[in-house]
User: Fold these one by one.
Assistant:
Number 1:
Amino acid sequence: MKAFIVYCHPSENSFTRNMRDAFIKGVEDSGNEVILSDLYKMDFKADMTEAEYLRDANYRNTPDVAEDVFAEQEKINQSDAIVFIYPVFWTEAPAKLVGWFDRVWTYGFAYGEKTMKVLDKGMVLCSAGNPIARLKEFGLLESMEKVMFGDRLFGRVKETEFVVFDCTSRENELREKNWDANLQKAYEKGKGLFG
Ligand SMILES: Cc1cc2nc3c(=O)[nH]c(=O)nc-3n(C[C@H](O)[C@H](O)[C@H](O)COP(=O)(O)O)c2cc1C
């Protein structure tokens, strides 16, 4: 089985990068394959052109999608699961990943006469500075999940799982204290991705 990982973090010196690598090791140790899009490393262009906007807004199949967008769509259709790995920025994914959805979820692929494969699993692994209790208290965790699974992945994956690694801000002593246990958890999530 193949897992397509869409990873977005501006720095290699981060918890999220370590968490990503632990997750990938888990997937590979379970005998499965990974396709990785590292959006910063690829310098993925996040903003739509006017032509792209007009194509999608008018429900048109023309012009053909850009090559970098087509490459991402091909990776999806070759995979069995899609996994998003990122740090929470202002209760969202980093802007580059939000822009990835703007451009890759095109008319004729993700909506309209869809050609996007319905994947077995959609997973989010994100790191957050806040404790989960605080994200829940203000309804923020629910909002993040709703946007990812109730909109972006809705009807496009059969099963969903949202995993938050909380208290990961650099000033929080729990970042270091929970580091190894969190990487172990990410590894196990990778190992168990395909059941
Ligand atoms: C621009 C920015 C916005 C952030 N917004 C949030 C937020 O809305 N909620 C939250 O819990 N943490 C927020 N954080 C904290 C990051 O999620 C946290 O620093 C990160 O997950 C730590 O992991 P890293 O070492 O991989 O960067 C923000 C951090 C930055 C830099």
Number 2:
Amino acid sequence: MRSITVRLAKTSHTLGGIMATLILSTAIMSPAVAADIPAIYNDSCAACHDSGALNAPKKGDKAAWSALKQKKGMPALVNAVKSGMIQMPAGGLCEQCQDDDYRQLIDYMSK
Ligand code: HEC
């Protein structure tokens, strides 16, 4: 009787582990699917663009961003993120981002 209880407990433990893994992978995948811009920003861009590390234009620096948008234009800015810059890794650490995500991320940083 006792060994059965133990085995049952082990089985449910494994199931719990699988469930936890499933929930975790859904949480990791969801930004790509739902294009949750603030979450993508926090995961991929904030490391540099929150503090202005390495001279990155800061989130919320409206003047800097509107100057960039006027001078280069949105398509050039999107391309700059995709191909990377001197200090910015190509794609800005967002592997699943599409052009439209980058446009929205840039708008999000401009505010
Ligand atoms: C490792 C730091 C880092 C990360 C991460 C990062 N950036 Fe940057 N970014 C920079 C720096 C630094 C610059 C200023 C240009 C330079 O010196 O490379 C910059 C410049 C830019 C520019 C201006 C490009 C231009 O043509 O002037 C845009 C747009 C941009 N980043 C978007 C993003 C987006 C969107 C993300 C997230 C998906 C991101 N960056 C992630 C460091 C980073």
